[in-house]
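Thread: "does anyone have the structure for this chain?"

Original post by V.I.:
We have the sequence but no experimental structure in hand. Need at least a predicted one for the grant figures.
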Amino acid sequence: MSNKTKLKIGEFSQMMQVTVKTLRHYEQKGLLLPDEVDEWTGYRYYSISQMQKLSAIRDLQRLGFSLDEIKELYEDDSHTPSARQLDQKIAQTEELLRQLIARRDQLLLWRNSQKQITKMEKFEIQSLPEIIVASHREVIPNFEAIGPMCYEKIGPEMQRLGCKCPPPGYCFTIGHNKEYTPTDIDIEYCEQVEEMGEDSAIIQFKRLPAVPKALCLKHVGAYERFYESFIEAFRYIDEKGYKVAGKPRTSYIDGAWNQEDPEKWVSVIQIPIE
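Reply from O.Q.:
Generated one for you, tokens below.
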């Protein structure tokens, strides 16, 4: 072994704040080979000059270059990316940034939506924006059949059609019976989607106009007790002198798909008013 300063792999690892496992990985990739390997002990030794190379490798990794790309740079003796390679990495970074910003915006929307529902007053007046929905209308035996209808029939069909639903997700039902009936409920299920699609035997796409003003009321509990919340809502409408201006929507926040206990199911009743 020569007289110039040599560092055992552990010492080199400690000084450069890189794990031994990482150094062995770099060695396996042929990216940073030990300066010397003792043939008797198998000990690996690194030179002082290799500190600079390791630092450069880590800098390139931080800038988004893969180990394979870095290895190519060193094999070409360039050690630094060309202007073309930098342009490509900048374009990739800008695309990643666009995706991350879109993801952040959707997460913020989802979080704020959950906060809004959690803090929702007993009655709130809100506007409902124009949306595109995937719609399915069916006569079901009772309210308990809403869950199975959604995840056994509608969900798989929407997936087959390639529907994309903007988070946090907005789905609701509209009742079409002319009078109350505990059975044979004529119900329309709607779920917001990003764009119009091709209708199928199960799903029809439609654009619903904005609702300038809707009375919103949070309902906690089983669907069979929706009538309790409707009683409260219509009493409030009468007291405040509003008029019903469209068919009520029942929006589903938590249900059988993510909450076993029906007493913890959360829905929001939305009644267009004027």
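V.I.: this helps a lot. The domain at 6-78 is CATH 1.10.1660.10 (Multidrug-efflux Transporter Regulator; Chain: A; Domain 2).
O.Q.: and The chain has three domains: 6-78, 82-119, 123-272.
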